[in-house]
TrEMBL record:
<keyword id="KW-0067">ATP-binding</keyword>
<dbReference type="InterPro" id="IPR045864">
    <property type="entry name" value="aa-tRNA-synth_II/BPL/LPL"/>
</dbReference>
<keyword id="KW-0648">Protein biosynthesis</keyword>
<dbReference type="InterPro" id="IPR050062">
    <property type="entry name" value="Pro-tRNA_synthetase"/>
</dbReference>
<dbReference type="GO" id="GO:0004827">
    <property type="term" value="F:proline-tRNA ligase activity"/>
</dbReference>
<comment type="subunit">
    <text>Homodimer.</text>
</comment>
<feature type="domain" description="Aminoacyl-transfer RNA synthetases class-II family profile">
    <location>
        <begin position="34"/>
        <end position="330"/>
    </location>
</feature>
<dbReference type="InterPro" id="IPR002314">
    <property type="entry name" value="aa-tRNA-synt_IIb"/>
</dbReference>
<dbReference type="InterPro" id="IPR004154">
    <property type="entry name" value="Anticodon-bd"/>
</dbReference>
<dbReference type="InterPro" id="IPR002316">
    <property type="entry name" value="Pro-tRNA-ligase_IIa"/>
</dbReference>
<dbReference type="InterPro" id="IPR004500">
    <property type="entry name" value="Pro-tRNA-synth_IIa_bac-type"/>
</dbReference>
<dbReference type="GO" id="GO:0005524">
    <property type="term" value="F:ATP binding"/>
</dbReference>
<dbReference type="GO" id="GO:0005829">
    <property type="term" value="C:cytosol"/>
</dbReference>
<comment type="similarity">
    <text>Belongs to the class-II aminoacyl-tRNA synthetase family. ProS type 2 subfamily.</text>
</comment>
<dbReference type="Pfam" id="PF03129">
    <property type="entry name" value="HGTP_anticodon"/>
</dbReference>
<protein>
    <recommendedName>
        <fullName>Proline--tRNA ligase</fullName>
        <ecNumber>6.1.1.15</ecNumber>
    </recommendedName>
</protein>
<keyword id="KW-0436">Ligase</keyword>
Length: 428
């Protein structure tokens, strides 16, 4: 992509309405546009990042055997009356009336609809287990939408649902998701700690939130420091060990009962980026979603649900990856892998060389943003630093003299001089 043609409405000044760094940077880099309170349009740069995150989430969901579906955002109130949540959900639910005066709503989550699908089509123990997920927009009329996409009203969520014959089966599904979540966040270069969360009226231990540690997080978490190394580990996930280590949200943490010695207990603020939850037969009972067992008996489905805040992750990633100059994208979610900077635009030789390099990147399938604008080098450096492209390739007078380009690593700040071919090899 040529920057001269790219829609990148960056801002010079810090927007005054943004309280935290990720919100400021998302507005300054033109990733999002506020349409109304807590509702955003995603502009080209933001959309690329959102899609990258979504794709990592999708791949790790697929790996568990979960199957992607797509459910409607607008749903019938009837269905939600069956579970009792139409009345219980309260003001966070956006309610809509259609032209026939039928009550509808914008789905804040989708247990009801997926259970309706299951009760009509999952009839025998032989149809189990199953997992289905979607990556779909949700709406919650948050009382205080804030921090940009971190607490929006409309937001993109991955929600997966598991169906099993019994508790043991449901536990297997739950553990698969736990493992998938660790892999998902680790691929994004995030440290997300699974902490025990409130499992509400159902009770039991099987509810964990994934918290990305950041000083601006809204939750307070207490956890065994041994968890740090496990969630950072890129290899196989030791689910048993993971589930045996102590980690709890403020509300569930009891210093009297905490088994972790004080010097091993860490306290930190966290951003909730995911939540996994076993809720037994809560919805299948309400919906009469049952299968026939081996001996002809009727068995209610054991279900779980598993959410990831896909759009919230964009903010969380920036909270975890920035410096004074701007964003520092991890390569796995970067909107472009390399930024190509023409430092002498208008100079025939430099333009030709840059065009050549640009096309080589395109041919190799390396995502490149080419700054071909008629701007000073300083402005170009600052802009690339701000939008956080992991690698910068700088082509200028020295390149024409020595044949070497400058390659800057955004994260370390290190600048190397090397031939274009070596740079290309290192990026592949
Ligand atoms: P929170 O405690 O932040 O209000 P939640 O517990 O209500 O979140 P869940 O119902 O567990 O949210 O939804 C699954 C995931 O969706 C959350 O872990 C979070 O990452 C994301 N999410 C929830 N609400 C929002 C929101 N208003 N804006 C963006 N993402 C959200
Ligand atoms: Mg909430
Ligand atoms: Mg929560
Ligand atoms: Mg939650």
């Amino acid at each position: 992509m040529r920057l001269s043609y790219y829609f990148l409405p960056t801002l010079k000044e810090n927007p005054s309405e943004a309280q935290i760094i990720s919100h400021r940077l998302m507005l300054r880099t033109g990733m999002i546009f506020q349409a109304s309170a807590g509702i955003y349009a995603w502009l080209p740069l933001g959309t690329r990042v959102l899609r990258k995150i979504e794709q990592i989430v999708r791949e790790e969901q697929d790996r568990t055997g979960a199957q992607e579906i797509l459910m409607p955002t607008i749903q019938s109130a009837e269905l939600w009356r069956e579970s009792g949540r139409y009345d219980a959900y309260g003001l966070e639910m956006l309610r809509i009336t259609d032209r026939h005066d039928r009550e509808m709503l914008y789905s804040p989550t989708a247990e009801e609809l997926v259970t309706d699908i299951a009760r009509k089509h999952i009839k025998s123990y032989r149809d189990l287990p199953r997992m289905m997920y979607q990556i779909q927009w949700k709406f919650r009329d948050e009382i205080r939408p804030r921090f940009g996409v971190m607490r929006g009203r409309e937001f993109l969520m991955k929600d997966c649902y598991s169906f099993d014959l019994n508790y043991e089966g449901a536990l297997v599904s739950y553990r698969k998701m736990l493992e998938a979540y660790i892999k998902t966040f680790s691929r994004m270069g995030l440290t997300a700690i699974p902490v025990k969360a409130d499992s509400g009226a159902i009770g039991g231990d099987l509810s964990q939130e994934f918290q990305v540690l950041a000083s601006t997080g809204e939750s307070l978490v207490f956890y065994d420091q041994a968890l740090d190394s496990i969630v950072k580990n890129k290899g196989e996930v030791d689910v048993n060990r993971l589930m045996s280590l102590y980690a709890a949200e403020e509300g569930l943490h009891d210093p009297q009962k905490c088994p972790v010695p004080e010097d091993q207990l860490k306290t930190a603020r966290g951003i909730e980026v995911g939540h996994i939850f076993y809720f037994a037969t809560k919805y299948s009972d309400a919906f009469n979603a049952c299968v026939t067992g081996k001996d002809g008996e009727t068995i209610p489905l054991h279900m779980g649900s598993y959410g990831i805040g896909v759009s919230r992750l964009v903010g969380a990633l920036i909270e975890a990856n920035h410096d004074e100059a701007g964003i520092i994208w991890p390569e796995s979610v970067a909107p472009f892998i390399v930024g190509l900077l023409n430092l002498k635009p208008g100079d025939n030789k430099c333009d030709t060389l840059c065009e050549e390099i640009y096309h080589k990147f395109l041919n190799q399938g390396i995502e490149v943003l080419y700054d071909d604008r008629n701007e000073r080098p300083g402005a170009k450096f600052a802009n690339m630093d701000l939008i956080g492209i992991p690698w910068q390739i700088r082509v200028g007078t020295r390149t024409m003299e020595t044949g070497q380009i400058e390659m800057k690593c955004r994260r370390s700040g290190e600048i190397q001089e090397l031939s274009f071919e070596s740079a290309l090899t290192s990026l592949k």
